[in-house]
């Protein structure tokens, strides 16, 4: 296990560097000069040249790459072209909204999807089992922002139970306000997420139900619930955990849209604003940090999977 | 059961296609002209009411069907073409090139479609239908390329490929005669599923204000502008969402039905 962790950490570091390179190339491949963000309409040649020198886009591409890498190594994500403030502290402030939003949505979605998915598999022949899988079919066909807008309409506008949008100015210092502001966004994400998660839990459960080891455990005298808990959950969890990792990552990045729906000052709205203002350091910084988080999630999912399933460990040792 | 999902899917998608084609030749109202009072509730004259400028809302939702299908088809065609080509080439490439390509694809896939699309839109000057198609198509091609690469490798390991090689068939012919027909069913189903995701991605892009500008307003944009008047006219939020759900649900059903039809083994499992 120790050797695996070491190797997996190495892979994590490598993929982070690779992701940084891909991001660098993508942002430079795209047409348009980052210096344009600094200029107003009708700037003359000298102003353009000055802006380029300030941004560094007059340098050859490999010099830019070197600057990019050395900044990264010092955890310096640069300063915003628009506000002039460093990007990293801004990202940290924004994460105080996005991380609680993502984690709470994820936990709620798992709490909804795992029991319902198992029930819909165990009771596939009953009406409520069929209903559950029909609802999850519907859930994967709707965009997350639609659910958000519908929830605003029902809960906030019609029933006036919760704020429709926004986040308290004082942030988490105003805890009740911040908590109330996040209820609807969390509900929105977790409803949509649990729909797709339920499908995976359902099919993993169906696989387990048809497996020989479950039948053998029953034949050896274990009761059905006991057989399911002892053998089923551990086996069924392996594919579900890798999906969980992907889902958590996509929730984090899908928060862009939900933050827009509820006007939350999170990482997503920062990215959106950065894109609209062509603020390259901001866009690059947000994408780098979110890629790091996504890769970390993948890392944790892989390690947990290996802890649960000894067979995965043996294949690596055998190599 | 398998026929049912194929039929439901075909009907839902068929309605959308019919409406989209209809908007090319006929519209109930001029989408840019005032057709009645502002924010009217649904009536026989205006099935989905009117928007805040008094324009017929049902007409706009109908046009949205055309936009959604255009982006979906465009992105699926682009993503399918690039993805299949890259995937097959990668499967044939030397070990080092193949590994590098596979790693790049993995990283690209780690970025969700929406983010890649936002990047492309950000870089191109002004959002349009073309940038949306390009953006979503590129994001889709990474996912498809990875799938095609694995499938192609699986086919290339078969004995009949060796036999074909021995009988003097060139690699080009092998791809055409053996690889593509064998991977087609799985790839087609994957493209169909991606089609549904593309429709959602386009709606999200235009909801964020990065989609095609009016009069090519898509469902996402209709939703976005109706959000502020949701108290007076909830139909403005409900109608485009329902239309989008019907289309995506139809595509997903169609993909499920296709999978059962083209791949009987997996369908039975």
Automatic annotation (TrEMBL), chain A:
Main location: membrane
Transmembrane residue ranges: 9-30, 97-119, 131-157, 177-197, 236-263, 283-304
Record-level Gene Ontology MF annotations: dipeptide transmembrane transporter activity
InterPro entries: BPD_transp_1_N, MetI-like, MetI-like_sf, TAT_signal
One of the record's GO cellular component terms: plasma membrane
Source organism: Paracoccus litorisediminis
Name of this chain's protein: ABC transporter permease subunit
Topology relative to the membrane: Multi-pass membrane protein
Record domain ABC transmembrane type-1: where: 95-305
Protein keywords: Cell membrane, Membrane, Transmembrane, Transmembrane helix, Transport
Record-stated family: Belongs to the binding-protein-dependent transport system permease family.
Pfam family, one: BPD_transp_1
Localization terms from the record: Cell membrane
Automatic annotation (TrEMBL), chain B:
Record localization: Cell membrane
Membrane-spanning residues: 7-29, 67-93, 100-123, 129-148, 160-181, 231-255
InterPro entries, alphabetized: BP-dependent_transpt_permease (IPR050366), MetI-like (IPR000515), MetI-like_sf (IPR035906)
Signal peptide: none
UniProt superkingdom: Bacteria
Upper taxonomic lineage: Bacteria, Pseudomonadati, Pseudomonadota, Alphaproteobacteria, Rhodobacterales
The protein's name in its UniProt record: ABC transporter permease subunit
First-listed, main subcellular location of the protein, grouped into a coarse class: membrane
């Amino acid at each position: 296990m120790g050797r695996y962790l070491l190797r997996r950490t190495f892979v994590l570091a490598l993929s982070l560097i690779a992701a940084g390179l891909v991001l660098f190339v993508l942002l430079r491949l795209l047409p348009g000069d980052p210096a344009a963000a600094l200029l107003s309409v009708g700037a003359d040649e000298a102003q353009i040249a000055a802006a380029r020198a300030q941004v560094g886009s007059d340098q050859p591409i490999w010099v830019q790459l070197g600057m990019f890498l050395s900044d990264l190594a010092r955890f310096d994500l640069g300063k915003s072209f628009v506000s002039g403030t460093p990007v990293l502290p801004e990202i940290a402030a924004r994460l105080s909204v996005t991380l609680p939003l993502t984690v709470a949505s994820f936990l709620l979605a798992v709490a909804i999807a795992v029991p319902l998915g198992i029930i819909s598999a165990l009771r596939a022949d009953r009406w409520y089992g069929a209903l559950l899988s029909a609802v999850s079919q519907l859930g994967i066909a709707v965009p997350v922002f639609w659910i958000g807008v519908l929830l605003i309409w029902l809960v906030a506008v019609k029933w006036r139970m919760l704020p429709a949008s926004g986040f308290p100015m004082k942030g988490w210092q105003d805890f009740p306000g911040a908590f109330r502001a996040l209820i609807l966004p969390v509900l929105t994400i977790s409803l949509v997420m649990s729909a797709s998660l339920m499908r995976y839990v359902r099919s993993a459960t169906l696989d387990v139900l048809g497996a020989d080891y479950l039948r053998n455990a029953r034949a050896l005298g274990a009761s059905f619930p006991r057989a399911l808990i002892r053998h089923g959950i551990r086996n069924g969890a392996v594919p579900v955990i890798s999906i969980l990792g992907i889902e958590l990552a996509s929730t984090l990045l899908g928060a862009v849209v939900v933050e827009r729906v509820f006007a939350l000052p999170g990482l997503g709205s920062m990215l959106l604003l950065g894109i609209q203002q062509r603020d390259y350091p901001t866009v690059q910084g947000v994408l780098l940090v979110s890629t790091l988080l996504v890769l970390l999630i993948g890392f944790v999912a892989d390690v947990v999977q290996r802890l649960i399933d000894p067979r995965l460990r043996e294949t690596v040792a055998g190599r | 059961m398998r026929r049912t999902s194929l039929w439901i899917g075909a009907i839902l998608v068929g309605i959308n296609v019919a409406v989209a084609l209809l908007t090319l030749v006929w519209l109930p109202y001029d989408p840019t002209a005032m057709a009645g009072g502002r924010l009217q509730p649904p009536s026989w004259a205006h099935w989905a009411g009117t928007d805040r400028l008094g324009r017929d809302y049902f007409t706009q939702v109908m046009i949205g069907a055309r936009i959604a299908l255009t982006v979906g088809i465009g992105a699926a065609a682009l993503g399918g073409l690039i993805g299949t080509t890259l995937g097959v080439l990668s499967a044939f490439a030397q070990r080092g090139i193949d590994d590098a390509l596979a790693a790049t694809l993995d990283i690209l896939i780690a970025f969700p479609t929406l983010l890649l699309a936002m990047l492309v839109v950000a870089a191109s000057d002004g959002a349009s239908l073309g940038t949306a198609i390009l953006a979503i198509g590129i994001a889709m091609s990474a996912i498809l390329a990875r799938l095609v690469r694995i499938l192609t490798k699986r086919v290339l390991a078969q004995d009949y490929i060796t036999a074909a090689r021995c009988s003097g068939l060139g690699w080009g012919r092998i791809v055409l005669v053996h690889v593509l027909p064998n991977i087609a069913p799985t790839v087609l189903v994957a493209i169909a599923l991606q089609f549904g995701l593309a429709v959602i991605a386009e709606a999200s892009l235009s909801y964020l204000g990065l989609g095609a500008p009016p009069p090519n307003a898509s469902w996402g944009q209709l939703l976005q502008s109706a959000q502020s008047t949701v108290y007076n006219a909830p139909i403005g939020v409900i109608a485009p969402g329902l239309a989008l759900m019907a289309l995506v649900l139809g595509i997903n059903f169609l993909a499920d039905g296709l999978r059962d039809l083209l791949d009987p083994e997996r369908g039975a499992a």
